[in-house]
Write a structure and sequence with these properties.
Rossmann fold, globular, binds alpha-D-glucopyranuronic acid
């Protein structure tokens, strides 16, 4: 190409590519630019039937909504395997020898002659009488799981033990690496390789959800833990995984995604902060392939995240946000809880309500079945968040 032609070509190329790159990378933080919300109705079936009873909910509408999320967003979580074993190992030093017993457990699952092993770390209170209720955290920090057993401010083991809870955590990397190239070098490639060719197959966040289910299998097996009082917590990307895990596995009594944002608690159709296109571009391995069809086209999604709340009901659910975490759209997280939690009153006859407008919220909303808080500060999981979770959970388990 001669120089003028090359110049013309690169000018044309930049005119075409700059706006599309900008569309991918610029987030809207202007509330006046949020489109009018037209959300799918959780209470009307595919055939147009109005859903009002628990029976219709359980047999018609809930399975429809679960299927919508499987197909269009997260992918299936397989439940079949041949065997599961739990083996205690001793690798790390217990950071809290005075108050807690540490169990490091290798969970090995086999299917079709192949195996996959993930590591679960469990702390049990030394004082008090079990079986103990448990807080289970899906973790992904630090990036290398062998670096540190407990992230002090992030997984507040000591405080949870003081409040009388067992607590457990597994690191996402030990189930599916959080990497767009290597994500299948874990349970997906080892046990369920057929999913890789499926547009609605399991990807990283679904695999972390699968890991949470295997942790629950361990709680059922371990007599010092009360699996009927199990709370699933995840921050941010792991909050998205926690929601999907609990939608699929109704053994979790309480589900708490913290600042889980796009593809988690926040309504996608608001297109505020992180969008579907942005998340699918940066993290193509998180959601299934079908989700990419909604890049820049959130209005075409046949669902929105308030319907995740309805999938968890009648079990307890709590969302939390941070004021400066606009990327995760705190208002979209609250609205999703406000709208989705209608399922508690309208279908299950439980008095749950979020009458307050987001802008005038003061302090945490704590009530049986559904709660919310927004704290000051940035994107993170802190003891301030955990302490509200404990207060909420105490309301559910009393
Ligand atoms: C990125 C990503 C978010 C995610 C967050 C996290 O910011 O865009 O969707 O929630 O990482 O996991 O901390």
């Amino acid at each position: 190409m001669n120089r003028p032609a090359l110049f013309l070509f690169s000018l044309l190329f930049s005119l075409i590519s700059i706006p599309s790159i900008m569309a991918q990378n610029t987030a809207n933080y202007d509330e006046s630019k949020v489109p009018d919300l037209i959300l799918p109705d959780p209470f009307v079936s595919f055939k147009g039937k109005s859903i009002q009873t628990i029976q219709d909910w359980e047999s018609i509408r809930r399975p429809e909504i679960l299927q919508l999320f499987k197909e269009n967003v997260y992918g299936k979580i397989p439940t079949d395997f041949d065997a599961i074993t739990f083996k205690e190992v001793t690798e790390s030093q217990n950071p809290y020898p005075d108050k807690a017993i540490l169990k490091e457990v290798d969970i090995t699952v086999s299917r079709n002659g192949n195996t996959h092993t993930m590591r679960l770390n469990v702390f049990l209170p030394k004082s008090g009488k079990g079986p103990f209720p448990v807080f289970m955290l899906i973790d992904y920090k630090p990036k290398d799981p062998s670096e540190k057993l407990v992230e002090d401010d992030f997984w507040t083991v000591s405080e949870l033990i003081d409040r009388g809870y067992a607590t457990a955590s597994f690191h996402g990397e030990t189930v599916s690496p959080d990497d767009k190239i290597r994500f299948s070098e874990g349970v997906i490639g080892n046990l369920y390789p057929e999913h890789l060719a499926q547009a609605d197959g399991m990807r990283t966040l679904g695999a972390w959800g699968w890991g949470a289910m295997r942790a629950m299998d361990y709680f059922v097996h371990e007599s010092s833990i009360d699996e009927k009082r199990a709370v699933l917590v995840g921050h941010s990307r792991a909050g998205k995984a926690a929601l999907w895990a609990s939608a699929n596995d109704t053994r979790w009594a309480v589900t708490i995604p913290n600042e889980s944002g796009c593809g988690g608690a926040a309504l996608s159709k608001r297109k505020f902060g992180e969008t579907v296109q942005v998340i699918n571009t940066s993290f193509p391995h998180w959601f299934n392939d079908n989700f990419k069809a909604f890049n820049g086209k959130e209005e075409l999604l046949p669902l929105d995240q308030h319907m995740m709340v309805s999938l968890i009901a009648p079990r307890a659910i709590y969302f939390s946000s941070a004021r400066e975490d606009r990327w995760a759209d705190p208002k979209g997280e609250y609205l999703s809880m406000q709208l989705g939690s209608r399922v508690f009153s309208e279908i299950f006859g439980k008095a749950v309500s979020f009458p307050t407008a987001f802008e005038s919220l003061k302090g945490p909303v704590l009530q049986p079945f559904a709660g919310y808080h927004i704290r000051e500060g940035e994107h993170n999981l802190t003891w301030e968040d955990w302490s509200h979770y404990v207060d909420f959970v105490e309301l559910q388990f009393k």
